[in-house]
Amino acid sequence: MKVYMFVDMEGITGIYRTVHDPAYENQLQVSDVNAAVEGALAGGASEVLVQIAHGRTQPFDLHPKASFLGKGQPFGLWGMDGSFACLLHVGCHARAGAWRGVLAHTVSGDVFELSLNNVVLGETGIFAAMAGQLGVPTALVTGDDVTCQEARELLGDIEVAEVKRGLAWDLAICLPVEETARLIRTRAEAAVRRAKEIPPYRVQPPFVVRTVFNTWRGRGYVDHKVIGTLCRRLDERTLEVKSDNLAEAFALSW
What we know:
Elements: E1 2-7, H1 22-42, E2 47-52, E3 66-68, E4 84-90, E5 111-116, E6 119-120, H2 123-132, E7 138-144, H3 145-155, E8 159-168, E9 171-174, H4 177-193, E10 207-213, H5 215-225, E11 231-235, E12 238-243, H6 246-251
Parallel strand pairs: 1-2, 1-4, 2-3, 4-7, 7-8
Antiparallel strand pairs: 5-6, 5-10, 8-9, 10-12, 11-12
Helix pairs in contact: 1-4
């Protein structure tokens, strides 16, 4: 059984602000990732492919039975196909504007709100939709309590691991590393064992992605994004992309 792990940074244990010591960040991220790998293997995974989309973790930091994809481009599930049993999203954060969401944003600080076929999504939803097009379910999300609630509201009864409780954008009550490692390991194991019963998040084409940019960036920026016939300007802050290809729709939307 093949498992794909997408790793971000803002939802990692102990991370609550944008400026940390790189060695500190790396140590915390490695703990969360390796705990999830151990859990996945215990749950029946024969192969775990890890993409580090944000962070400095290197191959020699990882569990010896995990394969390493590297950072690459941050908004693609590179190497994923329909042969993977599930997606594990480790270190995820809440969508832009989420109250109490630690370091909450969607894609970048430029985006105020993003929706796919009239459903507002954060990065949990973006990657779940990408995986869903391949028939791969998102089975685990780890991050703060706001992120985990957001994931379950969208994806249903998936496994979640709350590693901290958000108090504000840059403030959180963080659980000890030893405790979160056990929690992530347990939930990752359960996620892989349940992978066949968790439905993929499937969105039917045509895919309509609307991106509302923050006021300070939106003026003029939307005009520059309107190219060909796929993108159109709804107002000075809002871009709409319509396509039958989800990857294309997302790629043109920010």
